[in-house]
Amino acid sequence: ARTHGVADYLSTDAGQAVSTADVVYLCLHPRGIVDFLSTYRACFRPGTLVTDVCGIKTAIVDAAAVLPDEVDFIGSHPMAGKEVSGVEHADCAIFKPANFIIVPTEKNTPRGLAFARGLAETLGFAHITQLTCAEHDKMIGYVSQLTHAIAVSLMNANDNTHLAEYTGDSFRDLTRIAKINENLWSELFFLNKENLIAEIDQF
Fold first, then answer.
1. Which residues of the chain have pLDDT under 70?
2. How far does CA 71 lie from the centroid of its chain?
3. Contact 30/54 with Cβ under 8 angstroms?
4. How far apart are CA 186 and CA 165, in angstroms?
5. Which of 4, 31, 89, 121 fits a disulfide with 84 by CB distance 3.0 to 4.6 angstroms?
6. pTM, whole model, 2 decimals?
7. For residues 51 and 111, what is the distance between their CA atoms, to the nearest angstrom?
8. How far is residue 1's CA from residue 9's CA, in Å, rounded to a whole number?
9. Contact at 8 Å (CB) between 50 and 71?
């Protein structure tokens, strides 16, 4: 972060950092977010705005219930990513054609919802929309999780040792996302298993 000049202040003391923050953006695996909120819930100041990037919402919004009432948690899901990770693959261009989903609850304030929308606009997302937790997780079960499950299945359905010598764009496009972070996606699959299983059955 120092090398790339993307931070004015850095801390390895999460509780201290949270206690001085106006905005907290949770960029962890689902269970990491649940654990973080439980561990540091007392550190959040009244009026703090909290959001996340998690690919499932019901479990995360449920976990955010431990936060003090004066803390505004607004679930969000930037639908932008790659099959590769690491700062060397950072690319702001992926936001421009992408969708940003805000997942409000009855606890959210107009200020909190305006913050989430402003964040998406600042990052340059092409389309900003709102869904309930249930709507989000059902939709994600189809457009994201089912597609990843299919891609992985295609790669495991045959001996693919020499496929690169013969495949064309269609196979590469269908299987690009099979190179997934298995720890992250296992959590996403299991935390949304009812929706994903229903989509697999229908497929």
1. none
2. 20
3. yes
4. 30
5. 89
6. 0.90
7. 13
8. 9
9. yes
